[in-house]
Design goal:
The protein has 227 residues and is mainly α. It has 13 helices and no strands. 55% of the residues lie in helices and 0% in strands. The radius of gyration is 19 Å and the shape is elongated. Belongs to the Nth/MutY family.
Length: 227
């Protein structure tokens, strides 16, 4: 299944736009309860205005909220970014730390966010257990754990450490494009022969094919049709 995911999504990567660790950290915080697409619409203007941790720490709250308004929960997110900026300035000289134990002490940063930042900004392998990842690895029988930290450790024992970040991207891509929560495209899934949950969604290829999303759709359907 891992090899198949590698073939389906060879170029999978973070779908949030960023140019440095601070921008990625901010983008991940903003992505809560909204889509990466929505965050990417907001961040160009935000990043042009707030370039350093100190900029967030000293932001005018009302002004910052306006930048974030369309992401949902914008008041809470403004609070989070201001607190995050202050903590980075006070504890880490305004720089984003490169260790998980340090990252998770920051306001609004849990293991999921920390692993995204480590894997994508610093090339430190990490498994990102979001809702897609957890759902899929349970469907596939890789683990029965529900707790994200336990899921992270269970899957980490199955996959070489150097591949944790790329695996995370590929599983999340598959969850967004094929293995949907309510109606997975089972009949058009290249993993179907190895999937213990095959049949959760429609099994006819033509029906399932209509459920496949994303720019890789033609590639996915070609691999699925090949068997």
């Amino acid at each position: 299944m891992k090899r198949c995911l590698d073939e389906i999504y060879p170029d999978a990567k973070a779908e949030l736009d960023f140019t440095n660790p601070l921008e990625l950290l901010v983008a991940v915080v903003l992505s809560a309860q909204t889509t990466d697409v929505r965050v990417n619409l907001v961040t160009p203007a935000l990043f042009a205005k707030y370039r350093t941790a100190a900029d967030y720490a000293g932001a005018d709250r009302a002004e910052l909220e306006e930048y974030l308004r369309t992401t949902g929960f914008f008041r809470a997110k403004a609070n989070a970014l201001m607190g995050l900026g202050a903590a980075l300035v006070e504890r880490y000289g305004g720089e984003v730390p490169k260790k998980l134990d340090d990252l998770v002490t920051l306001p609004g940063v849990g293991r999921k966010t920390a692993n995204v930042v480590l894997g994508n900004a610093f090339d430190v392998p990490g498994i990102t257990v979001d809702t897609h990842f957890g759902r899929l690895v349970r469907r596939w029988g890789w683990t029965a754990e529900e707790d994200p930290v336990k899921v992270e450790h269970a899957v980490g024992e199955l996959i070489p450490r150097k591949e944790w970040t790329s695996l995370s991207h590929r599983v999340i891509f598959h969850g967004r494009r094929v293995c949907h929560a309510r109606k997975p495209a089972c009949g058009a899934c290249p993993l179907r022969k190895d999937c213990p949950s095959f049949g959760t969604g429609p099994t006819e290829f033509e029906v399932a094919a209509k459920l496949v999303k994303g720019p890789e759709k033609d590639h996915i359907l070609e691999l699925a049709a090949r068997g």
